[in-house]
Write a structure and sequence with these properties.
The protein is mostly beta strands and 680 residues long. It has three domains: 146 residues, Jelly Rolls; 156 residues, no CATH class; 276 residues, SPRY domain (Jelly Rolls, Sandwich). The chain is built from ten helices and 37 strands. The relative contact order is 0.21.
Length: 680
């Protein structure tokens, strides 16, 4: 009969010379060989381990963060359902691994700050641990989201390197040695100058609704802020020809000319000549001045891309260019119009520029006069244009990041960047890129031809470009394009939920949005349309959160700010755990590698040397810290030795059910074995 003490740390309680081995994997050597009699059997007498308080994050562990208006499905209150908001929760994926409390807090913070949650809060999350006031023991997490302050005016600091080509024709112009660049930026004058004549700017298949040009320019790294963002462009230097001034979601001019894959028209459908496709430019919303329209009288119009569910093949819906007829609005800052403003009317009104501004999820547009007063064209509150047909769609996940874009068609015409209130140098923020800048025929990007030419998009930090790549285009992007709140209002006000939308604006620079964490599966009624329910996450099979207990929210799946929030700091909103976050406790087993026991592991479908299952709890209910387990009824396993065995060492592994070494042990591990003559 032998009693063997095995340990990873040499001290007075251990035998041998094991030294400071891993607490879950160690070997003890014997100065004198251990002699085991023939026909013996072995059992575990006791186990002492020190289990750390750790989380084990697996590949499929996810939760979602929503930042927007809180939803409400109580009939006794004002209903706010999925159809009434414009945004969905964003997937938060923590890197796989094991974490202590402090490490897990940091991992949550890093994951949130790397997620495509919009530039207003990107990189502002802070996650800290909470301790019990009396016991000082870990209790949970405090997750803070801070809305970014209003950025400074930046027009005076713009440099030529900030401006990039916004379509294939402009890229080709720069690449062709016979031509040279299509534009110049004179920073001392804040002037963007067109250096090329583009003929037949509005002669394509889309008529006056689409401008074709070899001079399309963007500011890809300067998205306008939703908190007072503004772009004022003086147009007095663009008298020679036509121009467009607008805003676009992030994109790459080397891939589909910057157009989203869900837009089914040109250039994504491959129709039209290579030249025509490359002279188009993506904008989500824009002011367009066509000098040659109406027999030279000129025409100023406003356009946007809108999804119309009543168009397309079999009325399945499609994206198309929609004109916002500002001139049909009930009131318009004292200017009564029955048709688009002409060149003569713009001169009479002393119009000197175009202004876009953003307030929360609302994009506004006005004309600026020489005395700096404004003629408001689009604004849901200061005009009577509160119907959706007279406004831009509220900003959604796809459009919450908007960059300035400019188009001109006449040599020496210029636009002056008078004011630009935009975000710059957001830590960690990345604009989308492309896998290749290879050029093909006529120096056009290869990715702008039918089939893509092997050029692909590299996603930036925004939700839209990540959705283009990391999710199936047919699910998340398609789901969002059908969200009722952002559908094209059309001319029939009775359609599309009454044709009205209440925009979410800032109040005294305080964000109207609140954070909501979706940590578990949302309740979904399959008999009801998804948009008519309270759903923060796009209801797809891969979008089911499973981290409620790990984050300290117990059985709750939706952690709303109105219930669990804290706003003690201005413009910073926090969600606080109300339950002790649950650590991950692995199933653990003792495996002895130097004894010829024969056990079987069904999980691995193979023979094993496991001889003992370590309980999850001690007798006093503890799972962590120094734990001691005594086997009251020992399970002896035969060594199947017909002769004596002489051992110079014993190797002990503490493994999981897949027989991988566990990683949540620390300090000293002690395993005592009892070897005796077989009783049966």
């Amino acid at each position: 009969m032998s009693y063997i003490i095995c340990s990873n740390i040499e001290n007075s309680e251990t035998v041998g010379k094991g030294g400071f081995d891993d607490p879950a994997q160690f070997t003890n050597h014997f100065q004198s060989p251990l002699i085991i009699e023939a026909n013996s059997e072995v059992a575990v007498e006791s186990v002492k381990i020190d289990r750390a308080q750790e989380w084990s994050i697996k590949k499929n562990d996810i939760f979602f963060l929503y930042y927007g208006p809180e939803q409400e499905d109580d009939p006794g209150r004002t209903l706010v359902l999925s159809k009434d908001v414009t945004k969905n929760g964003v997937r938060i994926k923590i890197k796989e691994g094991s974490y202590t409390a402090e490490g897990f807090a940091r991992a949550i913070e890093v994951a949130i700050n790397d997620a495509p949650i919009g530039q207003e809060i990107y990189g502002t999350a802070s996650v800290t641990t909470i301790a019990d006031a009396s016991s000082k023991q870990f209790k949970g997490f405090n997750i803070q989201i801070e809305a970014r302050a209003t950025p400074a005016e930046m027009s005076a600091g713009l440099l030529p390197a900030d401006f990039k080509e916004a379509n294939g024709a402009t890229i080709g112009r720069k690449a062709n040695p016979a031509n040279g660049p299509a534009f110049t930026y004179l920073d001392a004058l804040k002037s963007l100058v067109c250096d090329v004549d583009s003929t037949d700017s509005f002669s394509g298949a889309n008529g006056d609704n689409r401008m074709y040009t070899e001079c399309a320019v963007k500011l890809p790294d300067l998205p306008l802020s939703q908190n007072g963002g503004e772009m004022h462009i003086k147009t007095t230097g663009a008298t020679g020809g036509s121009y467009c001034i607008g805003l676009s979601r992030p994109n790459s001019a080397y891939v589909r000319n910057g157009f989203p894959s869900i837009f089914t028209g040109r250039p994504n459908d491959g129709t039209g000549s290579t030249k025509q496709r490359n002279e188009l430019c993506m904008m989500d919303m824009w002011v367009q001045y066509n000098k040659a329209a109406d027999d030279g009288a000129g025409r100023l119009q406003i356009f946007t891309w809108g999804f119309d569910p009543n168009q397309g093949i079999n009325n399945t819906g499609n994206w198309n260019i929609k004109e916002i007829k500002y001139y049909d609005a009930i009131a318009n800052s004292g200017v009564t119009q029955a048709a688009p403003l002409t060149s003569a009317e713009l001169t009479t009104l002393l119009v000197e520029g175009v202004k876009f501004s953003i307030d929360g999820d609302e994009v506004k547009c006005s004309l600026v006069k020489a005395d700096r007063t404004e003629i408001v064209l689009i604004d849901s509150k200061t005009t009577a244009q509160f119907y959706r047909q007279y406004n831009f769609a509220p900003l959604s996940n796809s459009t919450e990041t908007l960059i300035p874009v400019f188009m001109m068609d006449t040599d020496t015409d210029r636009l002056i960047i008078e004011t630009l209130i935009a975000h710059s140098a957001i830590p960690g923020w990345k604009s989308p890129k492309e896998t290749s800048q290879a050029l093909g025929i006529n120096f056009y990007p290869r990715g702008n031809r039918t089939g893509g030419g092997g050029v692909a998009l590299i996603a930036g930090s925004d939700w839209y470009t990540r959705a283009e790549l990391t999710r199936n285009v047919a699910d998340e992007l398609r789901y969002n394009e059908r969200r009722p709140s952002i559908l094209w209002g059309g001319t029939n006000v009775a359609n599309n939920y009454g044709g009205l939308y209440t925009y979410e604006n800032y109040t005294a620079s305080v964000s109207p949005y609140v954070p909501v964490i979706i940590s578990g599966a949302e309740i979904r009624d399959f008999a009801e349309e998804d948009f008519a329910q309270k759903l923060y996450v796009i209801p797809l099979p891969n979008n089911e959160a499973n981290m409620s207990r790990a984050l300290g929210f117990g059985k709750w799946s939706v952690i709303e700010y109105s219930i669990f929030g804290d706003s003690s700091i201005l413009n910073t909103k926090a969600l606080v755990s109300f339950d002790t976050a649950e650590f991950t406790v692995h199933s653990a087993f003792i495996r002895v590698n130097d004894l010829a026991v024969q056990t079987y592991n069904g999980n691995t479908s193979s023979r094993s040397n496991i001889i003992y299952h370590i309980p999850r709890f001690t007798n006093d209910g503890r799972q962590f810290g120094e734990l001691y387990f005594n086997a009251p009824e020992k399970t002896y396993l035969k060594l199947n030795n017909t002769e004596k065995i002489m051992l110079n060492q014993i190797s002990i592994d503490i493994v999981g059910r897949a027989e991988r070494i566990v990683n949540d042990l620390t300090g000293c591990s002690i395993v005592t074995l009892h070897i005796r003559k077989a009783q049966h």
